[in-house]
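Usage

Read records sequentially. Each one opens with the input sequence:
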Amino acid sequence: MAETLTSSRGSAVPQEAADASHPNAYQPRMAWTIAIWLTVFSAINFLDKVVLGMLAVPIMEDFHLTPTQFGVIAGSFFWLFSLSAVVVGFIGNRVATRWLLLGMAFVWSVVQLPVAFASKSWVLLASRVALGAGEGPSFPVSAHALYKWFPHDKRNLPVTLINQGAVIGLLSAGLLVPYVSRNWGWRTNFIMLAIASAVWGLGWLCFGREGALSTNASAEGTPLRADAPPRRVPYRKLLTDPTVLSACFVGFSAYWSLALVLTWVPSYLEQGLGFDRTGAGKLFALQVAAGIPISMTLSWLSQRMLQRGASSRVARAIFGSVCVGVGGLGLLVQALFPMAVPYRLAVLTLAATLPNMVFSLGPAILAEITPDSQRSAIVALNVAISTCAGAIAPITMGWFVQANAGNHAHGYELGFALGGAVMLAGFVVSWLGQHPERSLRRLAD
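and closes with the structure output:
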């Protein structure tokens, strides 16, 4: 049944007719088409990120790297990641997201190729630094692009969908990387990733479009929300707001977990739990696949709560902080208490999946309290601070593993325990600090 809008006279108007009359109105079909394109973009992004972790063992063997040295190379991906996210985020306030996304796809394609022919570890390091600079802005720009297509109370699911692109990327990596490596060598993976980015860029050039939906008003100029944010707020006021600050901290804690998943979980399955390389890849794919229904269900539940009248603090802030807290508790439990391998894998799967809800709910909270003209920059700053964890977590895990060379499993468990403690701290800060409605009143004052 076609969705309807209510006209100024109170009569129901079919959604398609409203779209034709008012090009700035919510257009579900086009909005979800853009969301699907950006989901594929996110999948390629995470394939790029996780491929190094999937190939950790053969890369360390070929380049004669210690675990700590490999951790430095893995963490180098984030050296320019945050800076790039901030710079391009501010540019995104003024430049169409369509062109920014196209430029990113081009960069990803170019910088992957040198790894396929590298004989020195510095080439691998330089490639990862450049790739991180190219991928840093991808999520904030994608979220900003989606918010131009979806109204306030419909933003959870589309952002969660593009985050599931990450899961699709991880799932594809678990299935494809071992197969490609076994048949054509591990370097071929980087050639295929370069081709994938180039193909996506060509498709986006043909079909990508820029949205025009405002958070503040409908196409007719009537307010969508009585408590909509002001047209502009000084950045010093935005960046000192407790909701913004706590969103950055809980994002940092959640990204600590994600960085460990991307970089070390595949090798943990192999070196810590004793699976062979192919079996570890398949098991890793199974773990990330299990996260898809969990994430989508939780996102739908949060959005449903919001639409049924729950406050944003309850439906988004508290909901997300609980997910991070449970994930952190799971990492601590599986690290500190002995348990059979199946139970350990189940707990690790939940601990790796639940904190990711912050990456959907956090930007929605920030978009709720930030003016449209400043949204790209604020979401980018949030991502920049959050992803700093990606430069720290892989190195700390590498240090724990190397320090426990005689017992790799124990080294991994200590690294996971530290990640759990960081996430529990994020839970506390988020619970106490995130009050979107209060922040909206403060910023509008």
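Summary fields computed downstream for this record:
- The chain has a mean pLDDT of 85.
- The chain has one domain: 26-210+235-444.
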